[in-house]
Amino acid sequence: PRIIIYDFACQLMEYCLNRDPIFFANTRFFIDRYHQVNHSACSHSHRLYHYPNLGPLNSQAGEQINAELVRRLSNTSMFSMDHFLFFERLSIRQYNVPKIAEIQKLKDHAAHVCRQPAGC
After folding, report:
1. 33 φ, ψ to 5°?
2. Pick from 30, 16, 23: which is nearest to 1 by CA?
3. Hey, which bits of 7-110 come out as E strands?
4. Whole-angstrom Cα distance, residue 14 to residue 11?
5. 22-36, 46-60, 102-116, range with greatest mean pLDDT
6. Which member of 16, 70, 75, 102 has the greatest number of CB atoms within 10 A?
7. Quick one: pLDDT at residue 27?
8. Collapsed DSSP state (helix, strand, coil) of residue 4
9. What average pLDDT does the structure give for the chain?
10. What are phi and psi of 28, to 5 degrees?
11. How far apart are CA 28 and CA 50, in angstroms?
12. Do the Cβ atoms of 99 and 118 come closer than 8 Å?
C-alpha cells in the first residue's frame, strides 16, 4: 500500500518494517487526525496536517466503516456465511458508489480548470 492511516501508525510502521521491509518500503504511515493530538512524542512526519495534498482525505473512514459494521452485527448474526458476505459486499458498495462519484466530480473539475487559459 502507498498510504496507511491508523490511530497508532507510528508503532505500526516500525512493526511492518521489521516484519517485511521490502513490501512496506514505499509505504507512508500517518496517524489519523482524531488521534494525532495524543502522539506528542512521535515524529511529525506521521501527522496529516503537514501534508496539504492529503487535506480533504477522510482519515476516519476505516473507523466509520467499522462502526457501521458493528451496528449491523445484530441484523447479520443469524445469516449464513454466503448471505453475510453478499450483504456486506452490497453494503460496502452502497457506501463506495457515492464516494467514487464525488471523487470523479473533483477529477472532472480539476481537468476542466487545467484546460482554462490560466492552466494548472
Report:
1. -60, -35
2. 23
3. 28-31
4. 5
5. 22-36
6. 16
7. 92
8. strand
9. 79
10. -100, 135
11. 13
12. no
**Highest mean pLDDT pick, 31-35, 82-86, 105-109, 110-114:** 82-86
Helices (H), 2-80: 9-19, 61-76
* CA-based radius of gyration for the chain: 19
Q: Which residues of 16-31 are buried (b: 16+ CB within 10 A; e: fewer)?
A: beeeeeeebeeebbbb
pTM higher than 0.85: no
Q: What's the pLDDT score for residue 18?
A: 95
Residue appearing with cell numbers 448471505: 83
Contact 28, 4 (CB under 8 A): yes
| Three-state secondary-structure class, residue 3 | strand
* Contact between residue 37 and residue 59 where contact means Cβ atoms under 8 Å apart: no
Q: Which cell is 84 given?
A: 453475510
